[in-house]
Amino acid sequence: MRVLLVEDDPILGEAVRDQIAADGHTVDWAKRLDVADDSMRTVTYELVLLDLMLPDGRGLDFLKARRTAGDATPVIILTARDQVSDRIAGLNAGADDYLVKPFDLSELSARIGAVARRYAGNPNPHVEMGGLEIDLANRSVRRDGRMIALTAREWALFEAFVQRPRALFSKAQLEERLYSFDAEVESNTIEVYVGRLRKKLGHAMIETIRGMGYRFGQSKDAARDTDQRDTSRRDTSRGDTRHGA
Fold it and tell me: Which CATH class is domain 126-221?
């Protein structure tokens, strides 16, 4: 997913940014609220990590303004203010979660995943799809009990597809999920990563909709063809066994 980090502390901000990137997410880091506002007008984010005290204003006011404008982007507040009244104010302003500094970076990763799953409509981290067993919390995928290794970028793309199965993603939307503002994007990047996922997960798992983009999850026709091939292989195997007997 693509995450906006709004934090002016350089040490904490760098640690959080590196943790998010290590988890396979793309992160843009804004150290002021005006920069954060410009970023959110330019890019669609799946999550915002918001400090409450910024050089140019209060994060709480920023959050209230975004919610009043109809912005439903998930927000996790990161702050040193640990009074119960502060937490209540943050949640009542529209925050989805609240994490008090100092915090463990692994806990932050877990909370990001939990909030993202809730917004995707399925809080269960365990998903079965097209013969794949997917653990979103631990970022793992298996087929027939065998682990399929995905790189961080492959997982970022895969997670986007899994969270919205059968949704059509344009190439530009997928590029937004993979790259921050300062990253250089090659013209064929998405095609390369889609190709890698197809090799690892099965070609039929990702459809190309010509001129429009990509869609994840076997279509009914593809699923039927796969079932027919599997049945044919089983019948052939049984026939070979009978012949050998």
Answer: mainly alpha
